[in-house]
Amino acid sequence: HSHFGRYEDLRTDNTTNKNTDQLGYTNAPVQPHTDQPFIEKPPGLQMLHCITPAPEGGENSLVDAKAAAYYLRSIDPVAFHLLSTIKVTFHRKQKDFESITSYPIIEMSGNEFKQIRYSYFTYSPFNIPFEWMTEWYRAYVTFADIVKNRKHQYYFKLNS
């Protein structure tokens, strides 16, 4: 369950969303992200079901965030270390909902991946020492470049 309930009825005409501030309820493109990093236990799996396909456009993409994190670790262990140890704050405030959590972008449990929290539109101002900012942002941009690179994405179009 999430703050949407068991199912989210996502329509671009925005007739089903009581919190009318969400990009997903529009025809605008949404960059790769993980959903709901601002709650303690974000969904580990989500299914998309298309009732009516877009007459034009409608391309979707998925990224294997775990593979992206492994790749980051292989090419830049320092960046991986920063993104897996420094907590960032995720915040979502809507008309009828608010949640704040702090976790690293790459959450580990020992040597095992636990969770990736990558959501450019739910970050709050960072509360880390200023002298870490340049290196942390370098690490973040490196990971973001991996996630946004088409060679790390799977593209498909939903059909009814």
Descriptive overview:
This protein has about 160 residues and is of the alpha+beta class. It is about 25% helix and about 20% strand. The protein is built from 3 helices and 6 strands. It has helices at about 65-75, 75-85, 130-150; strands at about 60-65, 90-95, 95-105, 105-110, 110-115, 155. A two-stranded antiparallel ribbon has the order 1-6. Strand 2 (about 90-95) and strand 3 form a beta hairpin. The longest helix is centred in the C-terminal third of the chain and has 19 residues, at about 130-150. It is globular, with a radius of gyration of 17 Å.
Largest sheet: 2 strands, antiparallel
Give the strand order of the largest sheet, numbering strands 1, 2, ... along the chain: 1-6
**What is the strand content?**
15-25%
Q: Which value, in Å, is the CA radius of gyration?
A: 17 Å
What string, H for helix and E for strand, traces the elements in order? EHHEEEEHE
Q: What global shape is seen?
A: globular
| Helical residue percent band | 10-25%
Regions with little confidence, pLDDT below 50 for 5+ residues: none
Distance between the termini: 25 Å
Mean pLDDT across the residues is 80
* Broad structural category: alpha+beta
Counting DSSP E segments of at least 2 residues, the number of strands comes to 6
Helical stretch tally: 3
Provide the fold topology:
Elements: E1 59-63, H1 65-75, H2 77-85, E2 88-94, E3 97-103, E4 106-109, E5 112-116, H3 130-148, E6 153-157
Antiparallel strand pairs: 1-6, 2-3, 4-5
Helix pairs in contact: 1-2, 1-3, 2-3
